[in-house]
Amino acid sequence: MTASRSTYLKTYGWSFLFFVLALMSKSMAVSLPLSLMLFDVCLRRQQVTEQGVAGAIKVLFIEKLPFILIMLIAMAVTLATQSASEYAPVGFVGRLTFFVAGIEHYAISFVLPIGLSPFYPAAIAGINGFGVLTLLLFGSLLAWSLFRLANSRIAQAVSLVLLFFFA
Question: Are residues 50 and 102 in the same domain?
Fold first, then answer.
């Protein structure tokens, strides 16, 4: 085994261990495998192999398979332990309201990280203008950067940051 292969296996093992520990502390860590795949694709870490694009995607997927399996197990355990009666049914407008409020909250917290808390009560009266404006701004930036993805390294970086932020 070469030194670089040994270093790769150690790094991969530590990454996997810290992912499992992160899942035990916060369920939001389930987004890590998707974020890792986005990093690989956007930064073009995995070059196209002799098998073409399908071969490169297969290598990326196999490399992330242990992370995905643990993620699926954590999701199943979370869903099994949560009671369906804990949550009141929310319609489409309610879900849209929570979505817009979440985007607004994350955008403000990203720019001005004060008053942060691990738990935020869901006290939302409705959609306000700032939330819609924030959603449109971030959505427009994401659409623009994805449109320009193949042409510019700056657009690639912007799209990677936005996709990681929303993942």
Answer: no
Residue with tokens 């390294």: 153
29-54: pLDDT as tens digits: 888 888 888 777 766 665 655 666 67
- What would the pLDDT profile of 59-95 be if each residue is shown by its tens digit? 788 889 999 999 999 988 888 887 655 666 667 777 7
Residues 117 and 154 in one domain: yes
Co-location of 64 and 12 in the same domain: yes
Q: Are residues 6 and 51 in the same domain?
A: yes
